[in-house]
Inverse folding.
């Protein structure tokens, strides 16, 4: 007998923001634990955290698995309660598979993301960061989108610690903002005005991208001019060569 399909809330998309990444710092020889591998140079933590100011992920996340490099004992680490993080030591950087499993009410497949574990600073200030032995933070802002969630999960998202309360209004089809986004206390993925992940920072990043685009456009114009000059020189050489042959 076929399993009855769970009714879904049509025309509604609900999204929830989160931050995933890692923080790594060199191991201090003076306070080095005796039980770690002699080759290990850094201690690091992988994590999946709520996006501030939202306090929790566990109302819609059942567990999160972190697939480490195969050289680690028990390389698949599963965390079933907050904080969703794994702390280890090591000497090398590698790609980590992070799989987010949702609560049974979601009736959704796990979401897989990838993160490159960074141990060393990069960029113009890298040397000074090494000298100061500053932690290396590498993190990303991400959103999980639930398109037309099943009714039980919709109710969970909109009435638990992560959402507001009220009736089941409907958003336009394909809309990313959930139908109750205007309700007081409702959690949505709108960026706050200030902070690490904020409208201000987004504006600054857009400004930086705009300047970078202008720089690239100038470089393209310069290269195009050089190419035109070289093509002209080539034509002149061909013309001179033709004149010499005729003269002979």
């Amino acid at each position: 007998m076929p399993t009855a399909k769970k009714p879904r809330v049509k025309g509604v998309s609900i999204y929830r923001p989160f931050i995933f990444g890692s923080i790594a710092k060199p191991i201090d020889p003076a306070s080095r634990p005796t039980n770690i591998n002699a080759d290990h140079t850094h201690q690091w933590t992988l994590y999946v955290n709520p996006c501030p100011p939202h306090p929790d992920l566990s109302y819609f996340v059942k567990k999160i698995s972190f697939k480490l490099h195969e050289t680690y004992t028990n390389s698949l680490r599963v965390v079933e309660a907050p904080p969703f993080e794994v702390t280890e030591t090591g000497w090398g950087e590698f790609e980590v598979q992070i799989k987010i499993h949702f609560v049974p009410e979601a009736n959704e497949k796990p979401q897989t993301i990838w993160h490159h574990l960074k141990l060393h600073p990069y960029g113009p200030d890298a040397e000074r960061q090494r000298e100061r032995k500053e932690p290396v933070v590498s993190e990303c802002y991400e959103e999980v989108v639930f398109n037309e969630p099943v009714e039980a999960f919709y109710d969970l998202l909109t009435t638990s610690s992560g959402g507001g309360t009220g009736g089941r209004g409907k958003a336009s089809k394909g809309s990313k903002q959930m139908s109750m986004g205007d309700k007081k206390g409702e959690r949505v993925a709108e960026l706050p005005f200030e902070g690490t992940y904020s409208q201000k920072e987004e504006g600054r990043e857009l400004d930086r991208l705009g300047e970078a685009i202008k720089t690239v456009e100038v470089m393209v114009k310069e290269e195009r001019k050089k190419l035109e000059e070289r093509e002209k020189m080539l034509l002149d050489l061909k013309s001179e060569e033709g004149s010499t042959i005729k003269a002979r």
User: Anything to note?
Assistant: Residues 159 and 165 are 5 Å apart (CA to CA). The chain is about 25% helix and 25% strand. The longest helix spans residues 199-247.
